[in-house]
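can u do me a favor
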């Protein structure tokens, strides 16, 4: 399932914070959105993750699952090992009707490094995670 890997990469950085100080302006806001998601995941706050950190498309898909988004997130959090996520780059697309951004992240799990690209959209003035490539 598409959202399983997304949640595994982004929700599992237990005990670690995402460094956002090297980013400025809109790029900092994107990095901060990933940091906020990580903080909420580390706290086990599935309600806040669903309400504040995930884009409407992700939320809609998770809400169709039995128990909705909160249960899907709770189940993922229970299965995730502790590993760290770091942001290596952020790109904000030129302003348009639907602002989008990507963040290059690296996660380490069981001693293995994995690079991924997180996609985000700006909804209601806030960057929210919409996918993983």
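np, heres the sequence
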């Amino acid at each position: 399932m598409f959202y399983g890997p997304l949640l595994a990469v982004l929700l599992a950085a237990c005990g670690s914070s995402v460094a956002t100080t090297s980013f400025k302006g809109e790029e900092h806001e994107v990095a901060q959105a990933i940091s906020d998601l990580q903080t909420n995941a580390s706290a086990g706050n599935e309600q806040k993750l669903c309400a504040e950190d995930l884009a409407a498309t992700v939320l809609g898909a998770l809400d169709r699952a039995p128990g909705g988004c909160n249960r899907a997130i709770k189940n993922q959090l229970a299965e995730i090992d502790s590993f760290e996520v770091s942001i290596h780059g952020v790109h904000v697309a030129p302003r348009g009707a639907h602002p989008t951004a990507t963040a290059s992240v690296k996660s380490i799990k069981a001693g293995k490094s994995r690079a991924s690209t997180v996609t985000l959209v700006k909804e209601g003035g806030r960057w929210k995670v919409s996918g993983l490539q």
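The helical segments are 3-11, 25-42, 46-53, 56-63, 68-79. hope that helps!!
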